[in-house]
Amino acid sequence: MVEAVGPDVTGVGPGDRVAYAGGPPGSYAESRLLPAAILVKIPDGVADQTAAAVMLKGMTAQYLIRRTHRVQPGETVLFHAAAGGVGLIACQWLKALGATVIGTVGSDEKATVARAHGCDHVIISTREDIAKRVKEITGGAGVPVVYDSVGKDTFLTSLDCLRPLGLLVSFGNSSGKVTPFDIGILSQKGSLYLTRPTLATYTATRADLEATAREVFDVIREGKVKVEIRHTYPLADAEKVHRDLEGRRTVGSIVMIP
């Protein structure tokens, strides 16, 4: 909640509930000074903790499936880490758009969670051949788009899941950075496209930031996306949060509370 604003600030004022994603470092604090330009108002019908959990992950999901590749009804897409924070939001949203969703996860427990949040098909990456299963599910065609936040461990597999002229959206690298490769592999595998987008680019203008956040809040208020906060930690336990994330012991959204 805004406590005070500078003399030239417009758009937000004391008492407004606001949220942000990105911006200058320093969010592990009970209060902070921020430029008003990165703030968006939280609308009625969206709780504070929901907004805290959804801003970064929800806006990431929005630009991925509504702008980087605007998913159409009837399309089949592959989303890695489907039980993660971005994955659970994106898979619900994709289902609401009328897509067929294939998700990858690392365990049976996470497979159950992914199915409950929009995944029509779940591939357990620790024991299944991802590309083989995708080809089976799509009748050998492959998918038009793969959303990959894993990086090094899944990059080549993701390319093998695409149909000719398909798009690999590499938006993260939880397993490490993708190693340098010969771009000729894109032509060999079907004249494929590759992009490495960031939320900062997609929300660089005030208009884009507001439009992105508004669409996220809209799908939440309409009930198309349910944000489940499965883990809450005191702010003092920030180190444990990072240890649990690194150890892949979390599912869905995490909120730290002062």
TrEMBL record:
InterPro entries reported for this sequence: ADH-like_C, ER, GroES-like_sf, NAD(P)-bd_dom_sf, QOR-like, Quin_OxRdtase/zeta-crystal_CS
GO cellular component: cytosol
Domain Enoyl reductase (ER): 2-256
PROSITE patterns per the UniProt record, alphabetical: QOR_ZETA_CRYSTAL (PS01162)
GO MF: mRNA 3'-UTR AU-rich region binding; NADPH binding; quinone reductase (NADPH) activity; zinc ion binding
Keywords of this entry: NADP, Oxidoreductase
PANTHER family, per the entry: QUINONE OXIDOREDUCTASE PIG3-RELATED, QUINONE OXIDOREDUCTASE-RELATED
Name of the protein this chain belongs to: Quinone oxidoreductase
